């Protein structure tokens, strides 16, 4: 009876259509009218609840908090995706409130099911099947080679369909600077500008700029494929979970949000490769310190941090925050993070070398704006100010408007506020605002948050709840070829550089993206193509170790959490998979090591028992 009741709540929550729920006299119409679909879904959910009950596994309070957090974020994003500007339009109506409760409970129960299954397999030693399939046996003989071949071949085929490359505004901006069409600035890391520029220069030298751009795309594909293959090989050596690792290889090769993003000509892809190496060296430090020292992975740690700094400025922030946590945690737990070969020492070394490299490159290359704009890390307060101006303009005093105008253009942000991205608001920021003016501005923001806390929550949720939306990823696949739009200036600049669209590739792109859309509508596959799913894996593993008091192992998740924090502080994450790609590529490896935790404990206990018997 309990599972019948729970299944009914889950199905009812899944049927809600919020843009109808807020209309007058549309209570019933706000539910999807498909009795057969509801019946089949009810039977399936009931079977799933019954199966999970037999596992006799329970989740902790921390795990339930994670489930509730993702359910609430999914609700926020689903409401916004329905074309509703604010959740007040939903919760101010009785029907909307009731349906919201059912919706949140529905997703809470679904996520809890997943965490319960994970808990079960975490707490029980898993055993590889002795009768392995030939492909798994082949994988065990050469995990690096097989993984590299699978990843690179599939991704290169996708890249051919997008010849010469998928492109974007930032990449064009960097090429314009490289070829002196616009002033050289340090808004983008100089190394990434030189990297893509030199490849296109090679193409121009041989008379085919498009081929130079395609060569750049091939290089980053092979680099990231190599980083993943190395990680798969290393994970296999440390865990022996060949079937799971082979499955991860296939998933990362075929899911659209990876192979549709890996072909994008941008610094974020190279950064993702170095992030993978950084995390694998860090994971090895926590899981098998002897292996970390023996194979000199401390050098990999320092090198990866250095190059992350050279490809993405936010490396300083998330690595810096990680260092603070590790140093404080090391003092509390009495862990020797201060050794020369420790991860903290190598991170500091990488940050120093990377910073010096950026300064040197900037001094030699940049003509103006030698440092990134301050606005890049102030999206959260700026978006809050714009939303407040839109919904509570009458409450803003003349003094507060004057304070805001010294930092942002109040009238402009009120009129042009975009809840999902902060670029329009940031563009009005006065970079010359003094420390005093910025301090006064933050005082106004703080006062407004206290006055309308729900608005502050909505400001963040509108921009970033998609990161935790397990219902459906708002995926932005980069499929428009070289030109992102028909803007005359972009067309003129690409012609000056010499790169252009390939008509056949544009047609293949159209077919490819249609297949992506089908992929996203299929059960299981659509969840694998949801970036919130990978963040959920990351947080689930984290709280699993916390509940088991394995705080030392939980520490390996800190850099990933800090990295997501820098994304939330940035301008946009909605649909921009290139920003979240590092988390997508690394989270599956956390799952592998999480499921190996008990295996090692059991093996250690069995070894101790055998030793005692010998005595």
TrEMBL record:
Protein's UniProt keywords contain Transmembrane helix: yes
Listed transmembrane segments: 31-49, 61-81, 101-122, 143-163, 213-232, 244-263, 269-288, 295-311, 317-333, 345-366, 531-546, 551-570, 576-595
The cross-references to InterPro entries, in alphabetical order and at most eight, read:
DUF6020 (IPR046062)
Print the keywords alphabetically.
Membrane, Transmembrane, Transmembrane helix
Please give the superkingdom of this protein's source.
Bacteria
Q: Which Pfam families has this protein been placed in?
A: DUF6020
Identification of the protein by name: Glycosyltransferase RgtA/B/C/D-like domain-containing protein
Q: Which organism is it from?
A: Vagococcus martis
